[in-house]
């Protein structure tokens, strides 16, 4: 909608004008892939002043995300590492730090922050009750550890392990990866080594749909150092 577009760009005067003329503050994302409400867009793009304004005008901070690639306002802010917005939503407006992800390609706030390498946001969320082992969504879901490992965020992987992240958490059923499989697939040898030292199952079964073992994923990607590391540590050929 026009309101969602203006909120995404951070145009507060335009948002105010549209609301004056009757724009619906809480129009949902519908069935759009990665659709957002006005508040979700403002949170995702770091517009703190607009987030505050929209909430004060009655925007629903718990509005459901789009079913595919959707994010709540809190999850959207976490995905971009907007720490001040996270603080505002959780501390001032009592957003649920453990809001469930959408069905496909969804992320909890912690999963989103971990996936995108936002160390300060991960630390803040953990200290405010985020579940480190929250179950991922069914399709292309990731636990926080799986998400961080897949993108090679070593510091966050270490932080999550120190906060009792399950190193061998099962992958989601469709396009899922264990933490080790995710790191191996992208060739992140430093993360692979850390996970192996943390007792990751080197021969964990792949998920049912589009799954890969760690060795399969590394070999397919041509990641020589990771393939060698896995073989030296007992990966089945």
Automatic annotation (TrEMBL):
Question: Which keywords, in A-to-Z order, does the entry hold?
Answer: ANK repeat, Repeat
Under the heading InterPro entries, the entry gives: Ankyrin_rpt (IPR002110), Ankyrin_rpt-contain_sf (IPR036770)
Pfam families per the UniProt record, alphabetical: Ank (PF00023), Ank_2 (PF12796)
Gene3D superfamilies this protein is in? Ankyrin repeat-containing domain (1.25.40.20)
- Can you say where the ANK repeats lie in this chain? 1-30, 34-66, 69-102, 105-137, 140-172, 175-207, 210-237
Q: Which domain of life is it from?
A: Eukaryota
- Please identify the protein, giving its name as recorded: Ankyrin repeat-containing protein
What organism is this sequence from? Answer: Morchella conica CCBAS932
């Amino acid at each position: 909608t026009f309101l969602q577009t203006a909120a995404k760009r951070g145009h507060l005067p335009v948002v105010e004008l549209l609301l004056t003329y009757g724009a619906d503050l809480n129009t949902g994302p519908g069935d759009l892939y990665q659709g957002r409400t006005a508040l979700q867009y403002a949170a995702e793009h770091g517009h703190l002043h607009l987030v505050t304004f929209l909430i004060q005008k009655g925007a629903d901070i718990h509005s459901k995300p789009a079913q595919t690639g959707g994010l709540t306002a809190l999850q959207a802010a976490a995905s971009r590492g907007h720490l001040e917005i996270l603080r505002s939503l959780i501390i001032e407006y009592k957003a649920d730090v453990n809001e469930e992800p959408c069905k496909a390609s969804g992320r909890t706030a912690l999963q989103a922050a971990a996936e995108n390498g936002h160390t300060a946001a991960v630390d803040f969320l953990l200290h405010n009750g985020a579940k480190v082992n929250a179950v991922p969504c069914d399709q292309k879901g990731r636990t926080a550890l799986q998400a961080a490992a897949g993108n090679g965020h070593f510091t966050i992987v270490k932080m999550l392990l120190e906060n009792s992240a399950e190193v061998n958490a099962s992958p989601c059923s469709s396009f899922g990866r264990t933490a080790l499989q995710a790191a191996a697939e992208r060739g992140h040898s430093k993360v692979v080594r850390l996970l192996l030292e943390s007792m990751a199952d080197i021969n964990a079964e792949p998920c049912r749909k589009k799954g890969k073992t760690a060795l399969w994923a590394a070999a397919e990607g041509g990641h020589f150092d990771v393939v060698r590391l896995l073989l030296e540590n007992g990966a089945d050929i």
